[in-house]
Specification:
about 475 residues, alpha+beta, five-stranded mixed sheet, about 50% helix, elongated
Length: about 475
Amino acid sequence: METIIVQVVVFQLCFLVVYELLLRKETFFNWNRAYLLIMSIVSLIIPFIKLKSFSKVIPSEFIISLPAIILGETKRVDSIGGTDLEIVVMNTQSVFSIVWIWYAGIVVFTGVLLFKLFKIWKFKLTSNSVQKKGYSIVTLKNSEEAFSFLKSIFLGDKIENTQKESILTHEKVHVKEKHTIDLLWFELLRIVFWFNPLVYIYQKRITEVHEFIADKSASKHQQNYYENLLAKTFNIAQFSVVNQFYSSSLIKKRIIMLTKQKSSKKSRLKYLVVAPVIAGMLLFTSCEQPGVESPDRNTSVLDNIEILKESIAANGEMTKEEQEALKTLLVLTSNNRLIKEHTKDVFEEVDNDYSGQAEVPFTVIDKVPIYPGCDENATSEELKKCFSIGIATHINKNFNTDIAKTLNLVGKQKIFIGFKVDEYGQLKQVKARAPYKALAIEAERVINTLPVLKPGMHNGKAVTVAYSIPVIFDIQ
């Protein structure tokens, strides 16, 4: 979740930079409105899009994922085979989490929005209202305010009659264009991302664009519109959920835009800049490898075989690791009794020589590796559970959590560890990936201190089995 929130904020910043540098000063007001709305939505969607054409997925057909190990709290997780495991944790930490601060902010800002809506409802309830075609005019007592909300236009009774016509013309544009919907959308974003200053900037920019659109339309129908706009610059309280006519901070900008020369049609090409920006974002999110991914089970076996054949033919040769993986595939098919007469000699060669070379998939192995202290006569599911608990306990007991203080880390740090248990019960090819190198080094050190295991057995022979473990280091 933290990663997604960070990505959303970064993407919002990228889109906002494009707007500020290239688009804000253009007179394509409706285009700018669409840009701000669409990009605010796109920034929320892109983190969840993973394009296979952009990604480089690590094959993991023969890697066993053990239950996640949580450093810092006790968790019940699902084991392989559906068995529930209670992970024993040595470092119990506070239940307090920054997530609760986020929730508290959401509650507070939801209350703020409800208060604004209640205030508008109260205005409408206690004021005189006149229904017109497509909108209503609400007269505010003893007030000089002028704003619109949805299909209601609020006018203070102290506003001079000479200016009411200009204001009505202006506010009717807001009502017709449904500008309130835009403002409500950004109010919702402010609730969820109350900590993100970019959302407030987006809302300020969309408010500017709304005024430019309304001014442009209103000035076409009134010759003295420009003079009326100059005549009044009231200093009144800002109300972010409504379209407000008199705003001292916007008057100057609105006058500048009213008198500015219309942008050339060629300037619209600037909007195309967003295309490579979005492509770069998709490339970033699709190439992420937060963990070991499972193969696409929706793809047919035949399709996968064709892909494998094309890959081998294209490369012209296979590495030692690829040869071992191919032998593993042959062992898998032989175990499922898919041997044909014309390939029998191949499988006989594999059966006689796969010990120490081919990795046997966990799902078909006769006997899984045994962690020291586990009952060798236990069932397969019990051995899997015992193995997982043994690994988890060892990591929790030996992992140096003081690294968090050294690196000033907070929140959840995800570490992914991969290793193999060979035919002698020893660990090999221990590799870890983490957001900080020190965490990866520590994870590899801890795994390398595991005791010698009893190797997995298949068809009466010791074989190599690969594992992967996600470790979540929860730091408060």
